[in-house]
Each structure stands twice: as C-alpha cells, then as structure tokens.
Amino acid sequence: MLKDPEHQVAGHMAKDGRLGPLVDGEGQFFKPFQSNGRGESEDKFYKSFSSNKNVPDHIRRYFPVYHGTQVLEASNGSGKLPHIVLDDVVSSYSTPSGMDVKIGARTWYPGVSEQYFKQCLKNDRETTSVSLGFRHAGFKIFDHQESRFWIVEYKVVHRYKVDDARLALRKFVSSNSLADSLPNCAFASEVFGGSKGILAQLLELKAWFETQTLYHFNSCSVFMFYENETVLMKGGDDARAQVKLVDFTHVLDGNGVIDHNFLGGLCSFIKFIQDIHESLDKLYFVGHLTCVSPSIV
Amino acid sequence: MLKDPEHQVAGHMAKDGRLGPLVDGEGQFFKPFQSNGRGESEDKFYKSFSSNKNVPDHIRRYFPVYHGTQVLEASNGSGKLPHIVLDDVVSSYSTPSGMDVKIGARTWYPGVSEQYFKQCLKNDRETTSVSLGFRHAGFKIFDHQESRFWIVEYKVVHRYKVDDARLALRKFVSSNSLADSLPNCAFASEVFGGSKGILAQLLELKAWFETQTLYHFNSCSVFMFYENETVLMKGGDDARAQVKLVDFTHVLDGNGVIDHNFLGGLCSFIKFIQDIHESLDKLYFVGHLTCVSPSIV
Q1: Distances (CA, A) of A170 to A4, A129, B212
Q2: CB contact under 8 A, A110 and B131
Q3: Chain A contact for B159, CB < 8 A?
C-alpha cells in the first residue's frame, strides 16, 4: 500500500534506485533512517521534541507530528530499514505548491569532522547561504497557465544567485506562466499575507527563536506550501498556506544559547517575503492613484 | 594638546610605539587611518552614513558623530597621518566602565581575499564568535571594592569560552570585587534595565536591523559603557548607560539584503543580557519570599 510521495520537493527522493521516503496515502509519511547515524540523530530529536514540555503548543504546529519508528521494506527494494513515521503534511492537499528553503548562513557547526566542515563551508559559499542566510533546496509550483507542476530540483537551485532566489519566491505566488520572467505575484496577499498566511507564521516562529535555547537547528529547512485548488475555484478564499520545519539530522542541544544562525537566516527570509508582499501593496497603491489622477504617476 | 584616550577598551591602542587614536580632552576623538585601505573604507562609511537620509534619527544616536578628517601628527610620532574626527563618546564620564563586543558569528564576507577569509574563519572558530554569535574584544571595569579599574585586553578575551563570556557580562554590572567568581550583578537593573538602559537600546537597534538593507556591518562592535560615579554617590540614579556601534573598516552596501549575520549575533547578545537581568528579578523574588515566609524557600 506504500508509495512514493507525490509532493516531495527536496531531500532524498526515491528515484533511479535511490532510497527515499514513502507515504501510505492516508496521512502518514515514512522517512527512512539516513546513513552515518543521521537517522538515529533525527529520531532522537523527534523523541526529545515531542516530549519536551518547554516547547509551547503554538510552536508544535510548525513541526510534523511524530508517530515513532517502524521497520519497513525500503523504497528501493534494498531490504528492511527503520523509518521515522510522521504526519504527511500535504496529504489533504490536491494540488499543492511547495518550497523547501534551508535556513542559516552556516550548515556546519562546532564539533563536526574537518571533512564535513569543509564540504558544508564550500556549499554555503557556493550557494546563497552565506550572502542571504538561506538557500533554496527545491520547489514544486503549479503553473496556472499550463495546468501542470514545475519541479525544480536541488542541482538547479544550488546554482541560484541572489536574484534567482528572489525570483523563485515571486514565482511561488504567481498566476502567470512560470516561464515568464516577470511573475505577477497574484496570490502573494492570499498566501503570504493575512492572519493565517506564511508571513504571520514565520513571525510567530521568529519570536520563539529569539528566546528558545533548547535546540540548534543546524541544516534545517522551512517547507512552505499552499493549496492551488482553492485559488483556482472562484470563491475559494483559503489557500491553506502552511509553514513546517523539516530535516533534523543535525539538531544539537542549545545549551543556554539561542540559535542565532537559524534566527538570522529566518529574519532575512522573512524580509524577502515581506518585500514581495509590500511591493504588491505598492503596485495596488500606484494603480489606485492612476485611477484618481493619472497625471501625477 | 592631544593625548592618548584614557578609556579605550579595545582596538588599536597607542602603546609601546604602536599607532593609536588620540583625544583632545574637549570631546573629540581622532582615529588614525588604518593600513591597507581600511582607513579610507571607514571614512567612506562615515561620510555615507552621516549624509544618508534613510537612516532614522533615533538610530543615529547609536553611532559616534562624524566631523570629517584631519591630518595630524601620529600618536607614535611616526609622522603626519589622516585621522577620522569623531565625538569622544566617553569624554563627559569621569569613571566609565566600558565593554567592546564584536558582533556576528562571521567576520569574513564574500569577496575578501583567501588569506583574510582563512584568518577570520580561524579567529571566529577559536573564539566564541561561531558558538555565540559574538565575542569579547576587551573591557575596562571599575572595581568598587578596590576603587580602581580592571582592564582586560584582547589577548585575554580571545581565549574566552562561553562561560567566561557570560561571567564577564555579569562582572560588568557588579559591585563586589572583580576577583570574586560570583559577581553580584548589583547594577544590572540600573545599567541593563529601564527605558533608558542598555537592553532598551539594543532592542531599538535590533528592530532597525530587522529591516535595514543599507549596510552590512562586518566585524563591527557594540561598545557599551556607563558612569560609575553616579552609582557611587548615594542618590545618583542615572548610570547614563549607552550603546554605540564602532569600527566600520569592513562595512559593505546591503544591496537589498538585511545584515543577518549582525542581527543573529545581536539577538544572541541581547539574550545574554536579558538572562542576567531576569536572573536578578528571580533573586529579588526569592529574597522577597524569604521575608514573608522563610519556610517555603
């Protein structure tokens, strides 16, 4: 009954014989233990987090719900393997656009091997991590003109520069063709704005990161997604936009210090989202002025 | 009429024939141009900043006022040299305690030479920069028990670990001897707290850094200081605590991106100050309970 997830946008995907996660189509997501102890690390984090009474309830909703582990036949048929069982966060969405953004200017952390340190540092410098404090890890966007999904994978987004990163965020909330170099950001207000939008959720997370010293979320991603079907239907007024933190193979104890690396990157990411949301307001404002007195524009 | 500054706590000091800044004793501070173009860079920043209409007035007060440049005989007698002329921010303080904290987990930045990158990265990893998002650069604290100043210079604070960094911040606001390993934080509420205290000022700076994309303040320091004389005098109720940003030899244009490196480090520094301020509240609370009902403590 298990199958490859339809809406995964980044990370280790089950393809060409590679190991990847599975879903049961009924709301559960099975993530195979990653190699070199990373699976055990991630499971340890989920166990700690799900039982940690110091995590406020309003913050828990930004993490996939954990249901323990289960030994399953691996997606690539390589044998039995332990899997972390989580809520499949997009299972109730019919045509979700999703975007995975790795937060933090630095993916290495004190105590790692010199080899891992060098590899992370190289990736951080080659991508936008150092300059922006975040980097795209992959996305899947519904193209309303062509009625199909565009999938952009890691090997492409890895080469993104600052302008590409900004453009991708604009395309994520646009209704014109993704081939168009001028995304119209038609859904920016519905997806990013409002009391239930992405921006409000990111700001709630930010407030927690300003004081939480429980965990350091090295190499974690923000996964944000919304439902296109409601946008497509006239009268549909809830994009069901959501933010989830994902990928916890490198989480460490905070030891009384805030995760300034994640927080700084998150603030930069928020500013990018705010800029898109506010430029929309400006476009509207200019349009409004045009109606009243075209000569002053 | 020019002399060595009495209350400098970090940076290039005029000592043993080394070049350092000068003061005129009447409110002006003369900083000699640093080598390798750093002096020109810093002067360029001050020129840009002082004429930049996008910098809000309430933020300007966190920067030393700039009065142009002046060619002067160098402090070490090595000849004439251009100096940046600034307000001497501690000139009206008789016994100031001061602390210089370099903000940011990363002191290098995209575009620097490989040699500079490696040197900065080494320093960032050896000090608390990577782990805390800031590192001590030096401080001068008035010891109320011994009625003299303690000066701790860069070569000492460079070796600080997390606990040393926290302890130094506690000693900065304590009235017991600095040789004591349990600082009493007697002045924490007066120096850190209140509407005019260090914490309120840092939070105002933080709010600006969340949106400002004008400059990236690589390798900059927060210099915080207060007047001990008012604390010593009974009835003196204003520590005149102040925060200034200093050292702008590596400032770059923000190019539409916030300074997430500075912001993350600043938030971590703020959390350290808050922890000291709040632990004081707890001590007071326990003390209060003791008076009312000793048995429950």
Answers
A1: 28, 19, 21
A2: yes
A3: no
Q: Which of A106, A89, A102, A112 is nearest to A37 (CA)?
A: A112
Contact between chains at A265 and B265 (C-beta distance less than 8 A): no
Q: What is the identity of the amino acid at A163?
A: D
* ipTM of the complex, rounded to two decimals: 0.91
Closest residue to B211, CB basis, from A131, A261, A271: A271
Q: Does the beta-carbon distance from B130 to A258 stay under 8 Å? A: no
CB contact under 8 A, B267 and A257: no
What DSSP state is assigned to residue A186?
T
Pairing of strands A221-227, A242-246: antiparallel
C-alpha distances in Å from residue A189, one per residue of A20, A134, A282 = 34, 22, 12
The values of phi and psi at residue B174, to 5°, are: -110, 155
| Biggest distance spanned by C-alpha atoms of chain A | 72
| Secondary structure class of B122 (helix, strand, coil) | helix
User: Using the beta-carbon criterion (under 8 Å), do A257 and B162 form an inter-chain contact?
Assistant: yes
| Residue B268 forms contact with A (CB below 8 Å) | yes
B64–chain A Cβ distance below 8 A for any pair: no
Cα separation, A70 vs A73, whole angstroms: 10
CB B72 within 8 A of CB B2: yes
Contact B204, B218 (CB under 8 A): no
Nearest CA in chain B to A272: B257
Which residues in A lie closer than 8 A to residue B255 (C-beta atoms)? Answer: 162
Q: Given an 8 Å threshold on Cβ–Cβ distance, is A265 in contact with B267?
A: no
Asked if A162's CB is within 8 angstroms of B260's CB, the reply is no
Q: Are the C-beta atoms of residues A21 and A15 closer than 8 Å to each other?
A: no
Residue with tokens 């992405």: A198
B260–A contact, CB cutoff 8 A: yes
Q: Please work out, in degrees rounded to the nearest 5, the angle formed at the alpha carbon of residue A173 by the alpha carbons of A168 and A174.
A: 90
Least CB-CB distance to A105: which of B106, B121, B256? B106
Chain A residues 190-229 within an 8 A CB cutoff of chain B = 210-211, 213
Task: Give the mean model confidence (pLDDT) for residues A283-289.
Answer: 43
Mean pLDDT within B150-161: 92
Task: For residue range A75-100, list pLDDT tens digits in order.
Answer: 988 899 999 999 999 999 999 999 99
The answer to whether the beta carbons of residues B133 and B257 sit under 8 Å apart is no
pTM of the complete model: 0.92
Q: What is the CA radius of gyration of chain B?
A: 20
CA distance B221 to B98: 12
How many of the other CB atoms lie within 10 Å of CB of B242? 21
Q: In 10 A of CB B24, how many CB atoms?
A: 14
pLDDT in tens, A139-167: 999 998 888 999 998 889 999 999 999 99
| Rounded Cα gap, residues B125 and B107, in angstroms | 11
